Amino acid sequence: MSLLSTKALVKYFGDTHAVDRVDFTVTQGELLALIGSNGAGKTTLVNLISGLLRADSGQIHFQGTDVTHQSIHERIAEGIARSFQLVNLFDQLSTLDNIALSIFSREGKTRRLFALADHDSAVQDEAMAVLRQFGLEGKARMVAGGLSQGERKLLDVAVAYALRPKLLFLDEPTSGVSTREKAPIMDIITSIVRSGRITAVIIEHDMDVVFKYSDRIVVMHEGAVLADGTPDQIRTNDQVAMTLLGTHV
Ligand SMILES: Nc1ncnc2c1ncn2[C@@H]1O[C@H](COP(=O)(O)OP(=O)(O)OP(=O)(O)O)[C@@H](O)[C@H]1O
Ligand SMILES: [Mg+2]
Q1: Looking at the domain assignment, is residue 21 inside a domain?
Q2: Within a domain: residue 107?
Q3: How close are the terminal C-alpha atoms of the chain, in Å?
Q4: Residues 138-169: tens digit of each pLDDT
Q5: How many folded domains does the chain comprise?
Q6: Would you say the CB of residue 15 lies under 6 angstroms from ligand 1?
Q7: Parallel, antiparallel, or unpaired for β 216-221 and 80-83?
Q8: What is the pTM of this model?
Q9: Any domain includes 104
């Protein structure tokens, strides 16, 4: 069953055809990898779907609803969330409060930006439970700015996860972390996504990671979808190999 679909989605920046008539579908329950060279249009596509950018033309349907013209907040309420290629955290707030803020915003509550979690034990408990899932409970009181790069990437995913999305976009959740740290981070993320029955789209450059964790792979090139298939189909696709060769060796 299709959870999300875009139809002829277009976003140009001047002469750059960042997203060029893209038909993109996400099926309920899958873990989909979105890959492609630098500048292929992956982040722009996610920005369009999550509502950070407005499409020039085309449509986006989520669970049968046309969300093309909805605001970010309306789309979050529908169940679409995303993490960021460059993490989007409140560095002066504690790790716990970063999660608490996400829970508050999900519930439409507004709070002052200090000592957030201390004043609401239900939110504090929920935020701690999320941190525990991500292995960050020991860092709950540390300011987010003091975390390691790997911990920051995990926290950024946890912030999006705390919105309790049905569809979660993860834009390079392991970028900037060492090769050694990639597998543990992906293990945590994929086990949470699968046990929570969340449909997820992961943008990732590391092909070992892509082949190991994804059910299906969509390849973008110069704003268009170049290929779409199982890991085996993509691994043996000559056009994909040629397009990606030399870019991510
Ligand atoms: N705000 C913007 N203004 C102008 N051009 C942009 C903007 N955002 C993206 N672009 C251009 O659109 C194209 C697609 O960029 P995008 O960030 O979507 O690629 P990507 O596939 O996510 O690449 P990467 O793997 O490097 O993150 C690029 O040519 C980029 O320079
Ligand atoms: Mg990108």
Answers
A1: yes
A2: no
A3: 35
A4: 999 999 999 999 999 999 999 999 999 999 99
A5: 1
A6: no
A7: unpaired
A8: 0.93
A9: no
